[in-house]
Amino acid sequence: VSYIGQDCREIPEHLGRDCGHFAKRLDLSFNLLRSLEGLSAFRSLEELILDNNLLGDDLVLPRLPRLHTLTLNKNQITDLECLLDHLAEVTPALEYLSLLGNVACPNELVSLEKDEEDYKRYRCFVLHKLPDLKFLDARKVTRQEREEASVRGAFMKVVKPKVSSEDVAASPESHYTPLPSASRELTSHRGVLGKCRYVYYGKNSEGNRFIRDDQL
């Protein structure tokens, strides 16, 4: 069943009603899907094409026990681990997966800052989570990749640091320093007077107190 380029934001109810009971291959590419609600009518799917949509990290698939091919190229998926955990649960027969064009798949299609090493680590982590895959993206899974994934795949997860709103609002010049403002210039050699909120009275250490001349 092909429903390509219809600009639909959700899977039409009539599509599942009319075709869900017999469809083995469903192509919903080049639409505006943000949700896969309605896919539960397609219980016999073996291939699902969802390329060029607006699917994000809240993607939810129904359980599809026969699905062996899933392509999610050029969507808005950023959380790789969340997606892989979900696929491991609902698509136990999955053998072919393609995630090219998503932030979760680090390569030059997404960012020029990514290189082949980033992509190798990504493949290793995916195969650690989904060890039965035979193809990942446009490349067949090799025995060497499978062996490396079983040994090191769990350590290949890339965690992006969380940026707080305060960090975003702060300008590059507003770096924190414990020194008074007058001492921040490296070329300034003037003395600096600072104030302290704490006062030590020396009540428990009278022997160390300074004694004035008129107290002798």
From TrEMBL:
Please provide the Gene Ontology terms (biological process) for this protein.
cell differentiation
Keywords of the record: Differentiation, Leucine-rich repeat, Repeat
Q: What does this protein do?
A: Required for melanocyte differentiation.
State the PANTHER family in the record: LEUCINE-RICH MELANOCYTE DIFFERENTIATION-ASSOCIATED PROTEIN
For this entry, the protein name equals: Leucine-rich melanocyte differentiation-associated protein
Q: Please name the source species.
A: Daubentonia madagascariensis (Aye-aye)
